[in-house]
UniProtKB/TrEMBL annotation:
InterPro entries: Acyl_CoA_acyltransferase, GNAT_dom
Pfam families: Acetyltransf_1
Name of this chain's protein: GNAT family N-acetyltransferase
Species: Croceivirga radicis
GO molecular function per UniProt: acyltransferase activity, transferring groups other than amino-acyl groups
UniProt entry keywords in alphabetical sequence: Transferase
Length: 175
């Protein structure tokens, strides 16, 4: 049975890191990335812990195993991860005064995809976030069609398209 909760131990951070490593675009075949999706940003353990310290990440667990995660990235950390700086520049163009949470990355273990965990993580994240937030904002690499479809299916809407680091990104928001 899948249980949605927030990160509360270092072991869960280590499991997030391992799941991330298994799904980084650079670590999987091009065909697998096209079919299954991928994650782009490689966080250090220190970055994962820092982001978690402000607002704990949302995880999906089966017993003690983390099978999915959605990283919370408070806007105060907008300068901490270089590859995400362009996203925050875009957010500030469209939401200069908004109270929001950035979702830094979402990933589901391959063996558990197609079971509603993606939707479950976002539903849980919305419940765990502080009251009064206008929306959850994230970006998706346009080449990641599986992620684009999944985000649209649960209600994310595109705010803008932009180019950063030679990639085309979709800035999306969920209210």
């Amino acid at each position: 049975m899948i249980h949605y909760t927030q990160v509360s131990s270092e072991d869960e951070i280590f499991q997030i890191k391992a799941l991330q490593q298994n799904n980084l675009a650079k670590n999987i075949a091009v065909e697998e990335a096209a079919e299954q999706g991928f994650v782009t940003v490689e966080h250090t353990l220190e970055e994962l812990k820092l982001l978690n310290s402000e607002h704990p990440h949302t995880i999906a667990k089966i017993d003690t195993e983390v099978v999915g995660y959605a990283l919370s990235m408070h806007p105060k950390f907008k300068n901490e991860i270089a590859i995400l700086k362009p996203m925050f520049i875009e957010i500030e163009k469209y939401f200069p005064d908004a109270n929001y949470m950035a979702m830094g990355q979402i990933c589901i273990a391959k063996a558990h995809r197609g079971k509603g965990i993606f939707r479950g993580l976002y539903n849980a994240m919305k419940q765990f976030l502080p009251k009064g937030l206008a929306c959850i904002i994230t970006e998706v690499d346009y080449r990641n069609s599986r992620s684009m479809k999944a985000h649209k299916a649960i209600g994310f809407v595109e705010i803008a398209k932009y180019i950063a680091d030679d990639k085309e990104w979709s800035l999306i928001a969920l209210k």
